Amino acid sequence: MFRKKRSGGLTYIAQSSTFTGDTEFTAEALIAGKLSGNVSSSHNITIEQDGLIEGKLHCAELRVSGTFKGKLNCEKLNITSTGLVDGEVNCQSMEIFEGGQFIGMRVRDEVAFLPSSKETKPEIKQPLNNDEIEDAELSVS
User: Fold this and answer.
1) Cys bridge to 15: 32, 110, 129, 137, which one at CB 3.0-4.6 A?
2) What is the pLDDT of residues 107-117, one digit of tens each?
């Protein structure tokens, strides 16, 4: 019956607005315009149907009805039936509604690659001659 009040208010980027550069939201944000660059928020962000975020985005939860292109780091991603997410996504939870599109790669943890030094690479041995290969027997129990 009673809704919890939002602390910090709501930031709205209008449909005809375009912002480029580093952007930080201190409250929930509703994006109907275009944002390009590094975007960060400790709260939720919603991209409306005509909205676009292009670049790196870090937020608590992202709901996409418009378009996101780039690298995303969030706890929860929700792609609605009109939403498109194109890029690399690092999230714990993902929900895609029928009609929603996800193009890219999803990881749950940071990817740590092995070091590429000559010392760690295994030595490649020459293939065996046919004389050195033993015949194997198959037995059925």
Assistant:
1) 32
2) 876 555 445 55
